[in-house]
């Protein structure tokens, strides 16, 4: 059986690529009034996949990207490769909803082409950002063979590493910039795999050298069992279940709530009782309304078609159901916007390569082959990288206590113990910093935020990131 190091090295060797640069500068976008107040480049990076050991071609992938130059000093500012979760969410998810320079105008939307607004707390204020449609099948990225469409956690990570080297080859002005790998949610699995691929490739002499300096992980999927086990104590800590229910489950399930044996009836019954209490709570943010009719996945296509064709039927603001604000509603607007022909023409999308654009494509030919990357994080503690891990404290998808547990398992030295961090004198969250020789990991919570925290607290998340990326205490 291959160990992690051998598997990663094999994948680095498997994915050989020659890139054809096809980037264009986008001056205007439908829905935005006037020229864009930042530099946006979009394009494809062509990756040819060839298995040396079998002397056979697997196929070709065209990865689509959105590159936003820093609004500060692009020649010197860090380069952040930002990956969205899912797996299968487009780079436009991060661009519009999380850290990018534009957002949708939601108020009073009643159909048609959505309006775009400038976002003052974009991370592009301080770094250059590559938003990537990855894995293949996300957004506008596509492949030319069935084998190339099929991917896994480890394969897609190796492909992203190849993309980055090819992108840097086509953008020599950025080859000396500090490079950071950023991830959201599920892409937390890919983040450390990519980092180790980069380090091993640099050591092997692959060109261009990637000047990797650190990682940024938001509400990161890292270990399936740890995250599953964390949800019960999370619910208890936030008073969603009673002390008696928690103690019953803890005792009967022996503190382990993942992969429960069906013969343990007492444990199963305890978990069923807990499920009845939390099943109608929004896991993204337990304080949000649970707007099931505006789910971001299976029903998204139907709703965005309705919104485009029935603008006159809206008597209420569509992002509200009764008295409740629906956090997921703005997700629908990216699907509406991204399927307009004039939008795709402005972005430089090749027609006929994909079907309908989805914010998150849930029908990927994707196989999960990695359930934990904690061992990889342990390896990275000896690399001298700077790491930021952050979490919303009301997120029940990736509970903060589970993230804190796997960080504790790295056996790092606490450099700065638990303390509040502030914005203009107000507590924005809590933080702790760890070290191991030159390696430094900063952990931060964002008070009141859900999954993903950048969607709930843009100002706070930008301030946190801006301080960290420039080596200031949060």
From TrEMBL:
Q: Which domain of life is it from?
A: Eukaryota
Please give the InterPro entries that the UniProt record associates with this protein: AB_hydrolase_fold, Peptidase_S10
Q: Sorted alphabetically, which Pfam families does this protein's record hold?
A: Peptidase_S10 (PF00450)
- Transmembrane portions of the chain: 46-68
- Look up the signal peptide feature and give its range: 1-19
User: What GO terms describe the biological role, i.e. biological process, of this protein?
Assistant: proteolysis; secondary metabolic process
Q: Does the keyword Transcription regulation apply?
A: no
Q: Which UniProt keywords apply?
A: Membrane, Signal, Transmembrane, Transmembrane helix
For this UniProt entry, the molecular function terms from Gene Ontology, in alphabetical order, are:
acyltransferase activity, transferring groups other than amino-acyl groups; serine-type carboxypeptidase activity
Family stated for the protein in its record: Belongs to the peptidase S10 family.
The protein's name is: Uncharacterized protein
Q: Which organism is it from?
A: Acer yangbiense
Print the organism lineage: Eukaryota, Viridiplantae, Streptophyta, Embryophyta, Tracheophyta
């Amino acid at each position: 059986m291959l160990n992690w190091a051998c598997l990663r090295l094999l994948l680095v060797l498997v994915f050989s690529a020659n890139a054809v640069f096809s980037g264009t500068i986008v001056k205007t976008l439908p829905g935005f009034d006037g020229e864009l107040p930042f530099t946006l480049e979009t394009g494809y990076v062509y990756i040819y996949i060839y298995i040396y050991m079998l002397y056979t071609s697997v196929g070709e992938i065209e990865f689509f990207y959105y590159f936003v130059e820093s609004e500060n000093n692009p020649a010197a500012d860090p380069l952040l490769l930002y990956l969205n979760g899912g797996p299968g969410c487009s780079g436009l998810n991060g661009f519009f909803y999380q850290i990018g320079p534009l957002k949708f105008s939601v108020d009073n939307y009643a159909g048609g082409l959505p309006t775009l607004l400038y976002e003052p707390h974009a991370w592009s204020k301080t770094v250059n950002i590559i938003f990537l449609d990855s894995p293949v099948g996300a957004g506008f990225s596509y492949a030319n063979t069935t084998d190339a469409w099929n991917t896994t956690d480890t394969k897609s990570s190796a492909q992203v590493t190849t993309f980055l080297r090819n992108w840097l080859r086509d953008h020599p002005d950025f080859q000396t910039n500090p490079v950071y790998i950023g991830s959201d949610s599920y892409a937390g699995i890919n983040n450390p795999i990519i980092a180790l691929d980069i380090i091993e490739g640099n050591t092997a002499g692959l060109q261009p050298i990637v000047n990797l300096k650190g990682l940024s992980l938001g509400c990161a999927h890292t270990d399936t069992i740890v995250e599953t086990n964390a949800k019960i104590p999370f619910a208890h800590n936030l008073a969603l279940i009673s002390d008696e229910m928690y103690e019953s489950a803890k005792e009967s399930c022996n503190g382990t709530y993942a992969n429960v044996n069906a013969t343990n009836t007492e444990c199963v019954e305890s978990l069923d009782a807990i499920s009845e209490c939390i099943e109608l709570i929004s896991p993204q943010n337990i304080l949000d309304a649970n707007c099931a009719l505006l789910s971001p996945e299976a029903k998204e296509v139907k709703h965005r078609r309705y919104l485009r064709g029935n603008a006159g039927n809206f008597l209420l603001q569509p992002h509200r159901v009764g008295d409740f604000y629906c956090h997921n509603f703005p997700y629908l607007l990216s699907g509406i916007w991204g399927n307009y022909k004039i939008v795709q023409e402005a972005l430089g999308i090749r027609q006929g390569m994909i079907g309908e654009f989805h914010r998150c494509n849930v029908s990927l030919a994707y196989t999960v082959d990695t359930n934990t990357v904690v061992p990889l994080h342990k390896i990275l503690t000896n690399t001298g990288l700077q790491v930021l891990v952050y979490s919303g404290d009301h997120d029940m998808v990736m509970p903060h206590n589970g993230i804190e547990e796997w960080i504790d398992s790295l056996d790092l030295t606490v450099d700065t113990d638990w303390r509040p961090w502030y914005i203009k004198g107000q507590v924005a969250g809590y933080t702790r910093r760890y070290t191991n020789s030159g390696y430094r990991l900063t952990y931060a919570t964002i008070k009141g935020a859900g999954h993903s925290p950048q969607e709930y607290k843009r100002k706070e998340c930008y301030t946190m990131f801006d301080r960290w990326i420039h080596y200031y205490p949060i």
